[in-house]
What we know:
Layout: H1 6-16, H2 18-30, E1 48-52, E2 55-58, E3 63-66, H3 69-72, H4 81-92, H5 102-114, E4 120-124, H6 127-142, E5 146-150, H7 188-193, E6 194-197, H8 202-211, E7 216-221, E8 224-225, E9 231-232, H9 237-247, E10 251-255, H10 266-271, E11 277-281, E12 291-295, H11 297-300, H12 322-334, H13 337-361, E13 366-368, E14 375-377, H14 386-389, H15 394-406, E15 409-410, H16 421-438
Parallel strand pairs: 3-15, 5-6, 5-7, 7-10, 10-11
Antiparallel strand pairs: 1-2, 2-3, 4-12, 8-9, 11-12, 13-14
Helix pairs in contact: 1-15, 4-12, 5-12, 8-9, 13-16, 15-16
Amino acid sequence: MAVVGLQNEIERFQARTPRSQEMQAEAVKWLPGGNSRGLNQDPNPVFIERGEGHYLYDVDGNKYLDFVLNASSMIMGHANPIAVEAISDQAERGTGWVGPNEAAVRLARILCERVPSLDKVRFVNSGTEATLNAVRAARAFTGRHKIAKFEGAYHGSHEYVQVSVKGSPDPVGPDGPAAKSEFPGQPPSILQDVVILPWNDLEGCERALRRNADDLACVIIEPVASTLGYAPGRPGFLEGIRDLTTQLDMLLVFDEVQTLRMAPGGAQELLGVVPDLTAMGKFIGGGLPAGAFGGRDDIMALYDPRDGGPVIAHAGTFNANPLTMAAGEATMLHLTPDVYDRLNGLGEMIRAKLRAVFDELDIPAQITGIASFFSIHFNSEEITDHEVASRDDGELRKALGLGLLNEGIMLGSTICTLTTESEVDELVDTTRRVVQRVRG
Ligand SMILES: Cc1ncc(COP(=O)(O)O)c(C=O)c1O
C-alpha cells in the first residue's frame, strides 16, 4: 500500500522528541548504537524518564499508553504499589547474600503448585539463563549433546539458541531448514549440534528428529510462537511434538518466558500439553531481572548438592536474590485465576476490535494472538511459518508505529492488569485514525 503519510509522521515524531535525540547523540558515544537492548528505533529511540501505571513518560514530557510493558514483563503495569512496597521493604533489609531466603522458597512453591510440569525449580536472573540451563539439564540428563529448536524461534542470547533465529524467507527443503549462524565466528560445532525444525510441519519435524535421535537431548519450543505473532501451532502440532519426543526418548523443553502469562499454569495448562522442563522469566520477578527453570524431580535432582555434590554445578551471585524474590512473590500472589481470565478476555476484545478496524478500512491485515497477546500483520495469508510472516508491509508498519507514538501510544503485543475497555478503545480508535491519516 502507498503510505503517503510516513514522512509526515517521521517529522512530527522528531519535532516531539528533541531531548531524546540529544540523549541518543550522547548515548552513541558510549554504547554501540546507543543502548544495551535489542533496540534500533528509527529515526531515534524515545528515552523514558519514568513509568507509572499503564503509562511511560519520556524526557521530552510526552506521555505514552504502554502496550510494550517491557517486552510483556510488567504484568501489573509500571511502579505498581504492590511491587514497589515489596521491593522497598526488602531493600531496607538487604538485597543479597549467599544464604537462602524465605521469599525464594515461597515463590518456588507458588510456581510448582501452579505450573503442571514443575516438581522443582531453580532461579536465575533472565530468560536467557533459564533456557541455557534448561537445555544443559536436558543434555546432562540424557547424556546426549544435540538440541533441536525451531526456525525463527528466539530463546534468548546464549550460543546454543542463537542459531537460525532470523526466520528464513527461503522455502524449506526435504531435510528441513538448514542451521544458520547468527553472527560471524560462531563455532561450526554449534551449527552441527543444533538441529533446526520447521514450525507447523510435524512430518518434517519427525524426519529431522529421527535422523538425529541418538544424539538429541531435547526439543526446545515456545508453546505459542511469539516471533510469529503468538500464533498457536496447527491443531495437533504441539501434541505431536510431545508424542515424538516421548517416543524417541528426548526431553521436551517449553520456553514459557513469555507464555507463562497465558494462565496460572502457563501455556502448558491452557493448551493441555505438559513438557519435561520449563524455562520462565519476565513477570515472575515482579519487574526485576528474573528467570527460573524447572521440571521433573528426577531431572532437577542433577542440581541437588546433597549426597556427594551436584551433577551440574550451578552457582550465581544474584540467583534467587531476596529483592527479586520478594517482588516476584507479591506479583504472583496478586495474579489469581480471575486476573488471568480478565486479561485473556481483554486480549480477545483487542484482537476482535482491531480486526474490525482493518476490515472496515479494507486493508489487508490480520490480527493473531492468544490469551493476553495480540499482533498485527500487514499480510492476509495465514501465518503458518516464517516464510509467510516475512511478507509484510514494512512501510505501513513503520508509519503506524510512529503515528501511534505521535498520538501517545506505544504499540506492543500485550496488556497488563490495569488495562480496561477504555485503554483497549483508545488503542483501537487511535489505530483507525492513524491508518486513515498515513494512507492519505
Ligand atoms: C521466548 C523468549 N525466550 C527467552 C527470552 C530471553 O529472556 P531475557 O530477555 O530475560 O534474557 C525471551 C526474551 O524476550 C523470550 O521472548
